[in-house]
Specification:
single chain, seven-stranded mixed beta sheet, 202 residues, alpha/beta, 2 domains, globular, Rossmann fold, 6 helices
Length: 202
């Protein structure tokens, strides 16, 4: 029985496409993307899902309180019998209700080496701070912003001539690589969480 992934996105969906490519190529064995959901009308990621013949839904979030909105999203995820939820550029903070509905079954990819530079425009924050290394983090999602236990991280050297765009491009390549690896680890159950540590097991 294939493990079913639900992807939430708000924009272009490049991490969704990377996951979909990895599923198709067998890099995430025994998995399928069951549904893609966006909170924004016109999100390019939804069109990309439809092109791949993956179930896609837009559930507009404008004007709705967080939990009321999340109840609609959780209902669709449950309707598609989702085992793991992957946030892929999803620009909403999840409610306690959502997190409790999928305990340790929600992953996010963030373009910084957390706990540094949470929230928006992480690459700009890193450049302004003058760090020598930036990167990305896959973590479990809890009710706090970019704060759950870390599954994987990848580092990217910051060059003296980097712009926000050039740094973002190099980080994005690493995002695509480690998100696939993290999803595989979690779906295969080859880990345990001890305190804040995610420890790989064989």
């Amino acid at each position: 029985m294939a493990k079913r992934i639900g992807v939430l996105l708000s924009g272009r969906g490049s991490n969704f496409e990377a996951l979909a490519d990895s599923v198709a190529a067998g890099r995430i064995p025994g998995a399928e993307i069951a549904v893609v959901i966006s909170n924004r009308e016109g999100a390019p990621g939804i069109d990309k899902a439809k092109e791949r013949k993956i179930a896609a839904r837009v559930i507009p979030s404008k004007g709705l309180e967080r939990e009321a909105y999340d109840r609609q999203v959780v209902a669709v995820l449950n309707e598609h019998k989702v085992d793991l939820v992957c946030l892929a550029g999803y620009m909403r903070l999840l409610s306690p209700f959502f997190v409790a509905s999928f305990p340790n079954r929600i992953l996010n990819i963030h373009p910084s080496l957390l706990p540094s530079f949470p929230g928006l425009e992480s690459q700009r924050q890193a450049l302004e701070y003058g760090v020598k290394f930036a990167g990305c983090t896959v973590h479990f999602v809890d009710e706090n912003l970019d704060a759950g236990p870390i599954v994987l991280q990848a580092t990217v050297p910051v060059r003296d001539d980097d712009t926000e765009e050039s740094l973002s491009t190099r980080i994005l390549a690493e995002e695509h690589r480690i998100y696939t690896e993290a999803v595989r680890i979690v779906l295969e159950g080859k880990y345990k969480i001890v305190g804040r540590q995610v420890i790989r097991t064989n």
